[in-house]
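Please decode residue identities from the backbone states below.
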């Protein structure tokens, strides 16, 4: 590090960049060809914090993971399967999730309550446990170790792996925060509909780690949408194993805000990668609302715009139909003065003081053809600001989801 306190992105960084973590994955037969079983292991128990889906149907793995963390707020191993959600499977499915926890603990020689379990895939089908057992039994073999195997094993309809990491200094010691995630469909704000795993070698007391995660989630994972569906299985899990050997981080520590900013950067980049990889998507949409009476109001309007299917299809068709944007602002439920609103399909201003302005159609179409389409709304009412991310809605989204089980 060149300067104390600076946050630096680490190219190709992920969940194993932090000291004391390893990960791997393999194909055990839940999917036809692609890897479908992954794991993360920490050399020592790590402080653990998690945020879960708000869907009333809580999949069995989430119940088991909650129970594991509740014992002593620590996790040492994580086992994840894709291809099968183990959701809506009743008591037999819960027993399968407990068995996955026990098998992982036995294979890696750790306490059972130090294992978290996650699943993703088709809802309502029992796990073929004979395949899961065989897979976990091979998880300690050298040939299956490697973060790239883990990143592949957690995917479902994703078209790419998702990872990001940063490094910063705490008490003069370099610490790392790295993450990997999956998510492509069933992505909608409140809460974080996907799986994300974040590791750090920082020493953070668990209550403060959970507080930081909740705050950061509201600004990042809770500000993305692909299709408006909230899944049954989704979770963000953060593990801090303290291997960086510095004084424990608390809000009173001088480097606390720097740590929280690093965590936010990792979560934000993973969230954007998920939004860009929305099923069938061709472009990332970034909506920033400023000048709102409060941050909450800014978030509400940004979410309304990014969640509008009409806005999403207009972006796909490169149609600068600003009426769809102001319509979404209007039904957001937030308070604003329509006569003060300005809208940009950046850099082209399309609405000012609530009224349409003259613009060159070809300039707006060019803006809508960029890899990242930026929409900016200024309410001119206050200091509230928020940003949300999503993607365009294409014909391929229908194709992918019409054939999901076949």
């Amino acid at each position: 590090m060149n300067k104390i306190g600076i946050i630096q992105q680490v190219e190709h960084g992920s969940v194993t960049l932090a000291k004391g973590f390893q990960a791997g994955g393999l194909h055990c037969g839940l999917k036809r060809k692609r890897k479908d079983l992954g794991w993360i292991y920490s050399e020592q128990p790590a402080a653990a914090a998690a945020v879960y889906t708000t869907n009333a149907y809580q999949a069995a793995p989430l119940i088991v993971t909650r129970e594991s963390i509740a014992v002593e707020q620590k996790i040492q191993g994580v086992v994840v399967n894709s291809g099968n959600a183990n959701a809506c499977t009743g008591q037999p499915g819960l027993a399968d999730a407990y068995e996955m926890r026990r098998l992982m603990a036995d294979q890696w020689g750790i306490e059972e309550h130090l294992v978290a379990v996650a699943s993703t895939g088709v809802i309502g089908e029992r796990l073929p446990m004979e395949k899961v057992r065989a897979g976990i039994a091979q998880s300690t073999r050298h040939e299956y170790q490697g973060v790239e195997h883990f990143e592949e094993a957690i995917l479902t309809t994703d078209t790419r792996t998702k990872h990001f990491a940063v490094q910063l200094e705490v008490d003069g010691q370099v610490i790392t925060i790295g993450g990997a995630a999956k998510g492509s469909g069933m992505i909608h704000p409140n809460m974080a509909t996907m799986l994300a795993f974040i590791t750090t070698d920082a020493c953070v007391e668990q209550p403060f780690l959970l507080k930081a995660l909740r705050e950061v989630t509201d600004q990042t994972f809770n500000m993305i949408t692909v299709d408006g569906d909230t899944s049954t299985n989704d979770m963000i899990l953060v593990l801090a194993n303290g291997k960086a050997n510095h004084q424990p981080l608390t809000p009173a520590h001088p480097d606390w805000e720097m740590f929280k900013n690093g965590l936010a950067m990792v979560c934000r980049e993973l969230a954007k990668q998920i939004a860009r990889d929305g099923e069938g998507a061709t472009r990332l949409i970034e909506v920033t609302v400023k000048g709102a009476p409060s941050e909450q109001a800014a978030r509400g309007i940004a979410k309304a715009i990014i969640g509008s299917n009409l806005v999403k299809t207009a972006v796909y068709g490169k149609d600068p139909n600003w009426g769809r944007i102001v319509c979404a602002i209007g039904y957001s439920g937030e308070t604003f003065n329509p006569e003060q609103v300005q809208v940009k399909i950046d850099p082209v201003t399309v609405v000012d003081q609530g009224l349409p302005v003259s613009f060159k159609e070809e300039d707006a179409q060019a803006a809508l053809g960029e890899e990242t389409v930026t929409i900016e709304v200024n309410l001119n009412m206050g200091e509230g600001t928020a940003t949300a991310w999503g993607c365009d809605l294409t014909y391929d989204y229908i194709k992918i989801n019409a054939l999901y089980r076949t």
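Observation: The CA atoms of residues 284 and 372 lie 5 Å apart.
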